Amino acid sequence: MTRRWLHLTAVLLPLVWLVACGDRSSDDRGAPAEEPASSADAAAGSAAPAADESATVGAIDMSQWLARGDVVKRPSGLAYRVLRHGEGAGVPRGAMVIVHYEGRFLDGRVFDSSYARGEPARFPSDRLIPGWVEALSLMHEGDKWELLIPARLGYGSRGAGKVIPPDTPLFFTVELIGVEGNAAPAR
């Protein structure tokens, strides 16, 4: 069991930390343009299988989730819902962030979770998949968000090894615990 956990950690942790392709044209910390999400704008693609050991926490109905009144749809295609507003500082571009997160396929299977490991992760905020980079640029310490990341803002047509197939939209819960260099992490 320990060997399998180490293997999964060695494969999954770097997946979130992959260097994202493309230009990050905005580092705006102002209020995002609030555009109600619609099911017609749902991310294309289907969730493909992950490892057999993946936990299932419930399928995400994209149409229903996007139709919620509290979901914000960004022009990029990223959609998010604020679960908790933090009072801390924003994330400077390239700063190291401390986050708890859980990544799921749309069928509800968990493919990676810092919660399950019992320890938050630490990443450079500008060296992640584009959907995470965009979301972190809008978040503040103490925020907890749900993210629906279309495939093109995730791992795109290349996928991520045998864990995340090509053209797969992803759903994350992200809790921004702290930004290194700030006075004290939010809790």
Explain this structure to me?
The chain is globular and about 35 Å long. The chain has one domain: Chitinase A, domain 3 (Roll), CATH 3.10.50. It is 18% helix and 22% strand. The relative contact order is 0.24. Strands 1, 2, 3, 4, 5, 6 and 7 form a seven-stranded antiparallel β-sheet that branches. The chain contains four helices and seven strands, in the order H-H-E-E-E-E-H-E-H-E-E. The N terminus is likely disordered. It has 187 residues and is of the alpha+beta class.
Please give the structural blueprint.
Blueprint lengths: L1 H15 L45 H6 L3 E3 L5 E6 L11 E9 L5 E4 H4 L3 E4 L5 H9 L5 E6 L20 E10 L8
Keywords:
187 residues, Chitinase A, domain 3, globular, alpha+beta, disordered N terminus, 7-stranded antiparallel β-sheet, 4 helices
